[in-house]
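Troubleshooting: if your tokenizer reports a length mismatch, compare your output against this known-good record of 399 residues.
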Amino acid sequence: MSAPALARTFARLRLTLNLLVVALTAFVVVREAPPIDDRAILSIALALVFLGTYAAGAIALRGSAGGRGGLVGAWLALLTIESLALGYLSPDAAYLVFPLFFLYLHLIPGWWGVATVAACTILAILISGLAGRMTSGGVIGPSVAAAVAIALGLGYRALYRENLERQRLIDELLATREELFEREREAGVLSERARLGREIHDTVAQGLASIHLLLHAAERADGERPGIEHVRLARETALLNLEEARRFIRALTPPALEDQTLVSALERLAGSIQRASASGAGVEVVVRVVGTAMPLPMSIETALLRIAQGALANVMQHAGASRVMMTLTYMEDAVNLDIVDNGSGFDPDAALAEAWKHGGHSFGLAAMRERVARLGGEFSLESSPGAGTAVAVTFGFET
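Known-good structure output:
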């Protein structure tokens, strides 16, 4: 049941309760038919006062009962006193405690509502005895009514909580789906930008560079030949277009990788983390390179940089570490990035099991793993409480 449907159901229940109070009060008034004596007049007057008290409280507290605890308590106490007094004057007024049971269960939190229903039932029975109307029906009737009200009230509470939890889960799933969609869209945009950058670099830029070199060689070979001005103009035009193509490539490349060097991007990232943490406890971030650095596919470089950013963000927000070591290892046909911190650590199985919950650093870990999986890499996570965390990512590539 959705939140709007639940609100409509609650509105119908409230209307039914209001009609029940009005009907039972009218029943008490009608039963005090002629001949009218002093007791009947007092009963009718008190019944009308009870109805007015109920209406005034219902209007004042509608939609805000939870925020007016003192007013709610006073209202319920006044209704209880009036209904018990009516029960003493008129045997027909004993039924008025039944709708009050639902008010107790709805407005009084926890088991205090059930205790209030039980106490009111006992008082109704005792007042019936004081009025000289103690019978088995006078005991069984209020007791059965209280049991029915408690069962219905607790059932409604359970249904209400279940629907609230279900709606919360639906909202979280929708939010997670939207976030995943945004991440997928961002990944697709970055992948396409990287592909276009590589295509421009490998075709247009390389072709223009070759044309520039060939024309420059021709110009140097015979600088006095007829038409050399056209050769020089063609060379300069090729150079201008080569610079334009390189600007396109830079625009299509992630900002941190503008210089096409993953190592320098990681070093800048480490420096920014250290500067950001300088005002607090301070985190030392060390970047170490093993092997000979080589150009990698832009998609892999982008993924490694994003994973390093996410891992360092987790360290800053959750780990409480003082040192982080990032090791970038170049092999013949693979590259590996290890990020190890000396922070507080955590239970990785529990964190990844909770990864689909909205928010929290476990969702970031799941996003890292998905990013690596999309590119055919390997992702591993090692951690334990008090022993730090190690994230390792490996990508293979063709040389």
